[in-house]
Amino acid sequence: MPFSWADPSISGWPLRLALALIAWHHEAVRSVAPPIGRRERWCFIVGALLLALSLSWPLADLAQARSLTATVLQRQVIILGAAPLLLLGTPSEVVARLTRPRAIDWIAARASRPVIAIAAATILLGVTMLPFAISAASSSGLVRAAVLTLTIATGLVLWFPVIDRVPGVSHLTRTGKAVYLFAQSIAPTFLSFAWIFATHSIYSSLHEQHAAVGMSPLVDQQAAAYLSKLGTFGVLWTVAYVEFMRSGGEEEDEESPLHWADVERELERADRRNRR
Predict the structure, then answer these.
(1) Domains of the chain: which residue ranges?
(2) Which residue from 164, 81, 144, 153 is spatially nearest to 123, judged by alpha carbons?
(3) Fewest CB within 10 A of the end CB: N or C in the chain?
């Protein structure tokens, strides 16, 4: 179906998804003590709305089969905007409940390690942005849903080492977070070099770029490369700078204090090991 700015294809499910997330959050934090503040509530609400925006017309339609630049923008909104805001708005107590099952705890604990987080984010972003993945997602709703789910998971994994929510793991110092974010900003953008230096469009499944976004396929591909780098560097380097400045220097950089959720999770893991 041709894309048209004059004939918007509006779907209500992204907004319903956002409202469902906000309703779940309202119920999940009711028993949290002490109660969360207005800042956390608004972080979650804005994160849910950003997620809905990324899945709605026109961005979702352009990303589906029209523009690589739109695809990159959609994923940056999810990974650099929605994911960290959803994490910031979710208290550690709620995250502890969500990650209590053994398999989820195993995944979350390992995804919180900086080296694994960098490797996982690089692999997930790289695989889902390869031509065969973009082509499959443009022609199959099931594949598209799987790719978007992996994109959300990538965003959470990327921010786990920075936003301390997973219990029972070693938390980075502020300086460590700054170094991690700098390293994380480099690895996942490796595909952009191929997009910049390619002499032709390598995404044959994307079409009608000129009518949809006013660019040729090759220019759209190059614009996606620059957006990938500038967007990722701009967000991650800014957060890294803030974390480093807040550290007060290496001598004052201390590890995060131990909380009861960390102790409880370690006891649960010890109990599981004993039962095995």
Answers:
(1) 13-248+256-275
(2) 153
(3) C
